[in-house]
Amino acid sequence: MIYTITLNPAIDLVIITKKLEANTVNRTENFELQPNGKGVNVSFILKKMGIKNMATGIGGGFTLDYITAGLEEKGIKTKFLKVKEPTRINVFTRVLDQNVEYKEVNPGPEVGPEVQDKFLKYLKDTLKADDTLIISGSFSKGIKAEYLVEIAKITAEKDIKLVIDSSSKVVLDTLQYQPYLLKPNDQELASFFDLNEKLDQEKIIELARKLISAGCQNVLVSLGENGAALINKDHAYFGNAPKIQALNTAGAGDTMLGTFIGEKSKAKSDTAALKSAIAAASDTASRSGLTDFKLEKYLKEIQVSEIK
C-alpha cells in the first residue's frame, strides 16, 4: 500500500483574470477550488493512474472536510487527524495581460504535541513492511521540522519505502534511515548545501551523489522548464521538458513525484518513469487542475539521456 502524508493541507483557490489593478474591482474570467496540499496531490495522481493509496495527515475545520470529501469522492481513503483551527486556503492568480502568476500561500493551523504523538502512533500501528510512505510539503504551525526525522525512524524500523519532498534542511538528518527517494527542485538541492547559485548538470550530479553517499537511494530533481533529473549510485539521467504555455504551476512537482512513484510501482524502468513524470508534470502546469494523463504529444518531445 502507498500512503501519502500532508501535514499542512490546503484548499487552493485558482483564479484566472485578464488584468489585476490596485484599488479597483477586478472582474475575473473564472475560478476553481481545488483540494490541495502536496501529499493530497500525489494521492490524486496515483488514483488517476489506477493505484490504490491512502491519504493521511493533520488539519482542521470545514476546509479539511472539503479536502477529505474531495479525496473520498475520487475513491481515495483518508485518515486525517483534526485540530481546532481551520486548514488554510491559498490563492493562485494568473493575470493574462501580464502573463504572470501571483501566489499567496497562508500558514496552517496550530498543531499541538498531543495530536502529533497520536499521528506517529497511527503510523506505527498501521504501516507494514514493503509499504511506501510519501511525505510532502510544509508543516503546520507547531510541528517542528525534526518531526520528519521521527517519521523516517519509524519507516526504517518497519522496512517501509520512504519518499520525501521537503525543502527543509532537516531532510539531511533523515539520510541515516536510507530513504528510497528525495525530490528537491534544483534550488532546494543547492540550499541543502548552503549554495546560492544556479546549478549545471555536473553540479546537480555532484550534490545528488553526496545525498546518496549519506544514505539516500534515489534523487529526483525537478528543473522547471528544463525538465528533471534522476540520480542514484549507478546512473544519472536527465530529461528535457516539452514546450508549454504555463497556466498554473501549483501541483506540477507533486504530479512529477506521484507519476514517478506510480510508474515504479508498476515495475517501469527508471528512464520510462522519468519520461512519464516530466510529461505529466508539464501537462499539469499547462492547465488549471491536475493532468488527465493524455500525454502522447508531450512524450514525443521528451528525450531522456544518461550522463556518464
TrEMBL record:
GO cellular component terms given for this protein: cytosol
Record keywords, A-Z: ATP-binding, Kinase, Lactose metabolism, Nucleotide-binding, Transferase
GO biological process: carbohydrate catabolic process; D-tagatose 6-phosphate catabolic process; lactose metabolic process; small molecule metabolic process
Highest taxon of the lineage: Bacteria
Catalytic activity, EC: 2.7.1.144
Top EC category: transferase
InterPro entries according to UniProt: 1-PFruKinase (IPR022463), PfkB_dom (IPR011611), Ribokinase-like (IPR029056), Tagatose/fructose_Pkinase (IPR017583)
A GO term, aspect molecular function: ATP binding
Catalyses which reaction(s): D-tagatofuranose 6-phosphate + ATP = D-tagatofuranose 1,6-bisphosphate + ADP + H(+)
Record pathway: Carbohydrate metabolism; D-tagatose 6-phosphate degradation; D-glyceraldehyde 3-phosphate and glycerone phosphate from D-tagatose 6-phosphate: step 1/2
Full protein name: Tagatose-6-phosphate kinase
The species this protein was found in: Lactobacillus gasseri
